[in-house]
């Protein structure tokens, strides 16, 4: 899940990334700006939940359905030309 570090005292937020990156951003910021301590106004590592699978569109299934439907339409258009030759040996 994406995490981001936010310093309330400096009112600064770092870009989203893995939790380890957010912790590194926090540690670097504390060392450089707050002499290694936690800011008085507080800071936090926030996370943003990823869209649950039930809300995602399965594009692979959509493309397969469209391709299958297109194949049915083409077969239906060509069947009058194919049918007389089926089983006529």
Give your account of this protein's structure.
About 45% of the residues lie in helices and about 15% in strands. It has two helices and three strands. The protein has a three-stranded antiparallel β-sheet, with helices on one face. The protein is rod-shaped and about 90 Å long. About 5% of the residues are buried. The mean pLDDT is about 80. Keywords: Membrane, Transmembrane, Transmembrane helix.
What does this entry show, briefly?
The chain has 89 residues and is of the alpha+beta class.
List keywords for this structure.
89 residues, alpha+beta, 2 domains, three-stranded antiparallel sheet, 3 strands, 13% strand, transmembrane helix
How would the blueprint of this fold be written?
Layout lengths: L2 E5 L4 E2 L5 H15 L9 E5 L11 H24 L7
Antiparallel strand pairs: 1-2, 1-3
Keywords: Membrane, Transmembrane, Transmembrane helix
